[in-house]
């Protein structure tokens, strides 16, 4: 058991439960608190997860929003999910109301808590969570393009026949349609991706479509995505709890763009410790600017 390790998960649907399941097997939390507007969902998920908790030896229980507000890390997965064919940005109105309710019900939120936003549209909701909670910008993070980046690295791993963990590449910008891949900055074994012969044969538009379109394909086939984001969110919590200072692509307030979007950031106890500026080609920089502009237009409404 370590400090900074009391984690509340607000929203106990498919994503919240997948996160709790992935997290409990890391054995790093003193306690996992499960919160939802539906008492039946809390009861059912806690009963079910407690069976797994007995194997992982992690304490898990239902909790009130007020208790969640006193946790070290508050992960918000509450809210509506995308329907088949619906862009993430369409969810804003529905999930803005949910988020307002969630933040309001957790007051007073601990001043040193870290909020990890997962509900979509995650970039805009991270911006809103920061405003509503009043916490410093570094303590309010969104899962952003972490999942898209893992999808990219898995895909590149197949092309380059190397373990995805040995690929250093990022999807940046919006967790959504305007996201972009930072091809010029990508490396394998310290060697620029662009210097590999295989790179010349990559259809970049097709890769981009595969990465950004994967969620919609899963939603079309089974109605929702949850294991991937559950594992990614658990990894982010792991990084915060152990102050690992791992650089993850997460949704943060990026001063350079004046908006909340995904950039590589060093993550630890106090949330974001540093945001890195990725060297981009002129075309990539324009695409990231366009993503920032698209998000800014929506951010200004909230
Ligand atoms: P779900 O299974 O419908 O669960 C949502 C849960 O939120 C339900 O149990 C609701 O009862 C609960 N809820 C609603 N309002 C409140 C409230 N005010 N307080 C507490 N709980 C509340 O949805 P699912 O778990 O599949 O998705 C949750 C969110 O995650 C959606 O917004 C998805 O779009 C989003 N995802 C984000 C991803 C990412 O990469 N960031 C990936 C997948 C899904």
UniProtKB/TrEMBL annotation:
Reactions catalysed according to its record: (S)-lactate + NAD(+) = pyruvate + NADH + H(+)
Q: PROSITE patterns of this UniProt entry?
A: L_LDH
Active site, renumbered: 175 (proton acceptor)
Ranges for domain Lactate/malate dehydrogenase N-terminal come to 6-142
Among the GO molecular function terms of this UniProt record, one is: L-lactate dehydrogenase (NAD+) activity
Q: What EC number is given for this enzyme?
A: 1.1.1.27
An example Pfam family from this entry, by short name, is: Ldh_1_C
Q: Which family does it belong to?
A: Belongs to the LDH/MDH superfamily. LDH family.
In its UniProt entry, what is this protein called?
A: L-lactate dehydrogenase
């Amino acid at each position: 058991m370590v400090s900074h390790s009391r984690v509340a998960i607000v929203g106990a649907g498919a994503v919240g439960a997948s996160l709790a399941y992935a997290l409990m097997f890391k054995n790093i939390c003193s306690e996992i608190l499960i919160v939802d507007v539906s008492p039946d969902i809390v009861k059912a998920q806690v009963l079910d997860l407690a069976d797994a908790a007995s194997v992982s030896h992690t304490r898990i229980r239902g909790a009130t929003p007020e208790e969640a507000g006193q946790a070290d890390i508050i992960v918000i997965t509450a809210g509506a999910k995308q329907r088949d064919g619906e862009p993430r940005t369409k969810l804003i109105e529905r999930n803005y109301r949910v988020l307002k309710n969630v933040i309001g019900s957790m007051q007073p939120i601990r001043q040193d808590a870290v909020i990890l936003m997962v509900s979509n549209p995650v970039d805009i909701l991270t911006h809103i969570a920061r405003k509503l909670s009043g916490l410093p910008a570094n303590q309010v993070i969104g899962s952003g393009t972490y999942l898209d980046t893992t999808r990219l690295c898995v895909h590149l791993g197949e092309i380059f026949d190397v373990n995805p963990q040995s690929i250093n590449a990022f999807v940046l910008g919006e967790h959504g349609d305007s996201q972009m891949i930072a091809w010029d900055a990508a490396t394998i074994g310290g060697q620029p991706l662009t210097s590999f012969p295989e790179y010349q044969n990559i259809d970049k538009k097709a890769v981009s479509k595969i990465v950004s379109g994967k969620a919609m394909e899963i939603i079309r086939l089974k109605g929702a995505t949850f294991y991937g984001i559950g594992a990614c969110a658990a990894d982010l919590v792991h990084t915060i709890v152990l102050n690992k200072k791992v650089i993850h692509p997460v949704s943060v307030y990026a001063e350079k763009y004046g908006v909340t979007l995904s950039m590589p950031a060093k993550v630890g106890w106090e949330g974001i410790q540093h945001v890195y500026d990725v060297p981009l080609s002129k075309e990539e920089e324009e695409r990231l600017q366009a993503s920032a502009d698209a998000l800014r237009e929506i951010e200004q409404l909230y």
